[in-house]
Specification:
Length: 245
């Protein structure tokens, strides 16, 4: 949907511009054009500064979890309203509706995915539902897609990038599916910064939600064949986990 895509892209531009003006190391929107998505020939585009990439940059090579904690501290002050867990609530339903057409997905997979989605929706459908399930746990702007791995190594240092999934939610969404060492590193950094540490039960729920999101991405393989191998492994991992209760 063009309108939904444009709104998503505008949120990304606005948040990253706000972070840049506050001195957070990000790849900022280009100052050469208006800060808004441009639609041309059916494609919606955004424009960014060209990063001076360092020789040791590798796509999606992670950085220390302290970077994620520092980003969360900055994002906690973001003043504009953001949709609640947009990657789960906005993008996933359409993918699950088409899951039965994806290669390699069984009827049992589809049934389990829909059952888990409804269970998760009971606590993740909006901010009120989450706060009812986890009273007292704050939500805030979060990067939405693994900030520790969405970075660019530039000649002037690490810069955050890829905020297309910026959303409102618990910080646990951004550490979902990471191993215990990474979580411990995040929690240690959070303590140092005066922030709360992650909650194990919320992490469990976010892990299930993120796995389900990746299962839904099986429907994107015809458009992006490069995803096939990685998502097939993710599907097998999801099948090996106990169903959500």
């Amino acid at each position: 949907e063009p309108a939904r895509q444009a709104a998503r892209q505008q949120r990304e531009l606005d948040v990253v511009d706000w972070l840049d003006r506050r001195g957070v190391p990000v790849v900022p929107p280009s100052p050469r054009v208006p800060r808004a998505p441009v639609r041309r020939d059916g494609f919606s585009m955004t424009f960014w500064e060209l990063a001076d990439v360092a020789p040791d940059h590798e796509a999606y090579r992670g950085v220390a979890m302290s970077y994620s904690a520092e980003l969360h501290r900055a994002l906690a002050d973001y003043p504009a309203e953001l949709p609640f867990l947009a990657p789960f609530n906005d993008g996933l339903p359409d993918m699950l509706a088409a899951l039965g057409t994806a290669d390699g997905v069984t009827t049992a997979d589809v049934d389990r995915a829909h059952t888990e989605f409804e269970t998760l929706r009971a606590v993740l459908s909006d901010r009120a539902a989450f706060e009812s399930a986890f009273p007292g746990v704050p939500v805030q702007a979060v990067q939405g897609d693994g900030p520790s791995h969405n970075v660019i190594r530039t000649r002037s240092g690490i810069k955050f990038a890829d905020f297309e999934d910026i959303t409102c939610g618990p910080v646990e969404w951004d550490v979902a599916l990471l191993d215990s060492q990474a979580v411990d590193e995040y929690d240690a950094a959070a303590k140092t910064l005066g922030m709360r540490v992650t909650d194990p039960e919320i992490r469990r729920v976010m892990d299930y939600a993120r796995r389900l999101q990746f299962v839904g991405c099986m429907t994107l393989v015809p458009q992006l064949p490069v995803l096939a191998t990685g998502l097939a492994d993710t599907l097998d991992q999801w099948r090996s986990t106990p169903p959500l209760r």
